[in-house]
Amino acid sequence: MTILSLQAKQDFLEKDASTRDPIKAIAEFVWNALDADATEVRVTLDKNDLGGITAIRIEDNGHGISPERADHDFGNLGASHKRTESRTQSLERAVHGKEGRGRLKFFSLARRAKWTSVAAVDGRRVALSLTIQANNLEKCDRSDTSETDAPTGTAVELAPLKDTLDVLDGTDAFRQFSTIFAPYILQYPGVRIIYNTFEVDPRITIHCTHDIPQSPIICPNRTIDDLRLKVIEWNAPTEGRQIFFGGDNGIVLGSQAAYVTAPNFAYSAYAYSAFFRELADANLLDLEGINDPDFLHVLEHIRGSLKDYFRKRQADVAKGLIQELKDEGAYPYEGEPGDEIEARERQVFDIATYAVSSHSREFARADSSLKLMTLTFLKEAVKHNPDALSRILRAVVNLPKTQQNEFSELLERTELGNIISSSSLIADRVAVLQVLRTMVFEPKYRQTVKERGQLDALVRDNTWLFGEQFHFTMPEVGLTKVMERVAEDLGTKGKRRKVTKPDGKRGRADQFLGRVVPGPIQSKREYLIIELKRPSLKIGRKELDQVEDYMNAIRQQPDFSHTDTTWHFFLITSEYDDSVEARISQSGRAKGIAQDGDGYTLWVKTWAEVLRESDARHQFIQDKLKIEVSDTDIEARINELTKAVIKA
């Protein structure tokens, strides 16, 4: 039997070593230095006379690479000595690397990497060098060892460079580099890391840090209960906002773009969990397209937490300005928010006000009365049309494009538009119910309200009264014409051919409302037909028969016969006699159904039942929003309905 050894070849190693981010590639060599107990690591960019970068050097004062370690680690991929060690050799700091792959990251930067190292071996200091060529990643040339008096440590030279890497020489590169190692410096303050003469110093670069409280995250295949999330806000803008992922030891292992909008904040987020260590061992953390369902679930949770955090931070930042506006009488709100809706509204208003103040010199210089007028206008926009707020700020304040986009995303996250729309919807419905209750039960209106008039107008625009599936209905010309034709055929008007009722007499249709219920499939049609009876009328067999005749006639029209059509017929009254009670209380079907066939249902309901069912659907939200409708409001609504009917 022959035993075959699996060997990694050049094409595989190139793919494994490639990275589009030169800072991340350099960071791998810094991590190797820190894992070697270095207390000082220095990244130097060698330049030619024209200022172009010709080489990258990473030097450290760690324990170096011994000949034994060199033979083992550089002779194998994925068998690093770090795999069995969670702490460094001398200082017992958390270890970053596990696979021994980081050293190959030079492939994306240079044509060659050369390590020159001094290590202590049996009381002696031994020097050696190791060289890997980018076009031959399978091989490593190791020099003979020699004794030396030089201190322990390792210097890595990456040269010649494959491309122009002037992007590494600047403040943006240093800031990006700092975001990777600042948390490590916070964890181990005795360490110095210098990049291109600039030292990573959290005391200078960090504005503030915040640990976001976390609870267990239930993922599709596991529960993550050890997640820690830290936000670091920087004093200066960074080259892209990142979420850094680390193991449970707090060491950064990989990162991805945050995609969390936070206007005017430069930040990085750090998420730590043993779960990320697993992904790093599988070489997945830096893949933008990672589709592990558990990771995607955790990532969504992290981004949601960051959105909540920065929404609150944005409001906090605006507080100082808001207090100034209050002191000068230019703030349009008074007292504390009355409910959750107003609290959300004020939060968005304060953020918008901060945007106005930050980007409009005219506003900052205006007197208090002009500020109050401007902010009152802004308040009304937030209250009634928050979705248009970004357009308003663009027109009035000339908000920069990037700020417009960030503010728009911020508004979407607060969902204020949805909240205000929903609260307005519920408030209007509560008012409709109060008006309807007054019209059908109060003696002042009960005896005078007719089905053809205010009652018709109110119900026509509020078909949700009969169920949420009818929240949105609309008139349809075709249905209206057919209903008119059926009304004529039942004997209401005209001299054309008459369709009589089963008893041979011509019928008369009372006030019917026909509405179409929109649906996703055009071939399937759904209709709502409502027959209203005035509040003072107690119906009996005659009225129910009349509605059944109308229902049967309209269903049999050629426009609808043999089509995929569903009909919902409602007969609404204040009271009904025993004959009707018997017909709508049949065994095997819901109370109130007079007929139930293939594609149609006829309901008989009292106004009391309609109101009670609607009240039940809205009571919880009404209690939360504390919506009240005064007698004056009710009277005004009824008068508006009356005027509308008279004009019509």
**Oligomeric assembly:** single chain
Mean pLDDT: 80
Distance between the termini: 99 Å
Q: Which overall shape is indicated by the principal axes computed on the Cα atoms?
A: elongated
Number of helices: 20
Total number of beta strands: 23
The name CATH uses for the topology of the largest domain is Restriction Endonuclease
| Rg from Cα | 38 Å
Low-confidence stretches: 413-419, 492-502, 504-510
CATH class of the largest domain: Alpha Beta
Fraction of residues in helix: 40-55%
Domains (count): 4
How much of the sequence is in beta strands? Answer: 15-25%
Which key terms come to mind for this protein?
single chain; 648 residues; alpha+beta; Heat Shock Protein 90; 4 domains; 20% strand; elongated; HATPase_C_sf; ATP-binding
